[in-house]
Amino acid sequence: EQRKVDVETISTFRCSNEMVNRLHDLMKRTLLNNFQGKPTDTPVFEKNGWLGDLNVALKSILYNFDVNEFLSNFTFMMADCMHDCDNITIMIPSVIWKRRNSPVWNTVFVFTIEALYDYYGNTDIVNRLYPEVRRMAQKDIAFVESRGWVWDVFELADWVAPMNDEFCAPNAGMSEGIEICGTVYVHAMLHSAARLARLMGQEEDAQEYEAAAAKIRTAFNARYYRPETREYVTEFWEEIGIRSHYRQTSNLLALAFGMAPEGEEERIFARLVESFESRDYHLDTGCVGTPLVLPVLFDYGRADIAWKVLTQTTYPSWGYWIANGSTTAWEHWEVRSRSLDHYFLGTYEEALYSHILGIRNVRDGFKRFIVAPEIGCGLDFAEGSVKTPQGMVSSAWKVQGDETIVDITIPEGAEVVIRLPGYEKGVGGGNYRFTVNKGGNTVEK
User: What's the rounded Cα separation, in Å, for the pair 19 and 379?
Assistant: First the structure.
């Protein structure tokens, strides 16, 4: 008998596209199947707590379920492994991998502590585990400083990118080295650690982390960015399958995590757009790049491309799973995928809430956030809600003729910024209705 963790579903999502609704249900089902006392990679084969899977799917999980106790327990398990192994291992629990310090996998320790504070107001875990946060931050700072402020040793990174042959036997490896992914994740972890330090009143610690992060960003761009091609290029490459040396993940990371040189963002994004267009709006990402695809496309004003990617049904795409009759997410993009119940590529889920509904930038136990729905994303309507510690948040919009009607509910006690075309306003608790016309004018009713 399969036993799963009893977590509460706290949200709803529905839209006018039935395939997108099926993708939403597919990811929720896959996540629940993998809540087996810890977040596992698959309930059928390994059944292991690989941290990279959780790291890339963290927000997809947080939008759907109350996992405050579940992930708090798992985070304390990570801390226990640090005490035993002098390192947060890439799989929890484990001593086999104790020497593997892979930032794309184990920085989830810091990101989860921060997320538990932001989504649930959990200050206890910050107070109890900040010493371990500092220990991890200092260890990673020392390592990247010894390597010229980049992470350039081989470790796990953008796992299972498309092989570009849908019928081939998939290879779980990666063609690229860790340099781009690992360096970006350490940089992001240090900024999160700085924020946790300030919550603890440790300003000197925060400044130490931020100073190191600034050096990492400078070194990252000097070493891996190629202005002439507008690409980030790895220095390690091993041909696996028919993979391209440059992939979408490379530029997605720089844009999503604020690593791009100032003034170069639009050029880097334009190169990313070229990649999607040349691939007929198919994905060229592994587990690291996949959750960034839709948010970056939406944030840089290309909802049209985001929609084409989201609703693509041929290989490699999320819709390819649906076209092949699947009701859960796969471990690989290829039809011969080993595991057919593997959540780490189903991370479009985050953008259904953060962008299509627009509920994002969650801070301080949902006391502060933004609601900025992508009403021009290609749907006729979208609606959903999230139960938060402050109360229910809901966002719904529907195209009616030449207008879009938007209804937003904010719980009392929350301070929220609502953003719509030509409109931005800070509001408190209440029900809000807006009309947006095709000219981009928003009127509050």
Answer: 12
Burial class, 3, CB count within 10 angstroms (exposed 0-12 / middle 13-18 / buried 19+): exposed
pTM score > 0.85 for this model? yes
SS3 per-residue string spanning 234-303:
CCCECCCCCCCCCCHHHHHHHHHCCCCCCCCHHHHHHHHHHHHHHCCCCCCCCCCCHHHHHHHHHHCCCH
User: Which tokens sit at 304?
Assistant: 């049209």
Residue 365's identity, in one-letter code, is: G
Longest dimension (CA), the chain: 62
81 and 89 in contact (C-beta within 8 Å)? Answer: yes
What does the block give as tokens for 243?
């993979």
Residues 6+ apart with CB under 8 A from 222: none
pLDDT for residue 1: 42
pLDDT digits (tens, 9 = 90+) for 115-151: 999 999 999 999 999 999 999 999 999 999 999 999 9
HEC sequence for the chain: CCCCCCCEECEEEEECCHHHHHHHHHHHHHHHHCECCCECCCCCCCCCCEHHHHHHHHHHHHHHEECHHHHHHHHHHHHHHHHHHCCCCCECCCCCCCCCCCHHHHCHHHHHHHHHHHHHCCHHHHHHHHHHHHHHHHHHHHHHHHCCCCCCCCCCCCCCCCCCCCCCCCCCCCCECCHHHHHHHHHHHHHHHHHHHHHCCCHHHHHHHHHHHHHHHHHHHHHHEECCCCEECCCCECCCCCCCCCCHHHHHHHHHCCCCCCCCHHHHHHHHHHHHHHCCCCCCCCCCCHHHHHHHHHHCCCHHHHHHHHCCCCCCCCHHHHHCCCCCCCCCCCCCCCCCCCHHHCCCHHHHHHHHCCEEEEECCCCEEEECCCCCCCCCEEEEEEEECCEEEEEEEEEECCEEEEEEEECCCCEEEEEECCEEEEECCEEEEEEEECCCCEEEC
* Token couple for 4: 């799963």
Distance CA 194, CA 183 (A): 17
Peptide bond into 93 cis (omega under 30): yes
How confident is the model over 367-408, as pLDDT tens digits? 999 999 999 999 999 999 999 999 999 999 999 999 999 999
Model confidence pLDDT, tens digit, residues 330-347: 999 999 999 999 999 999
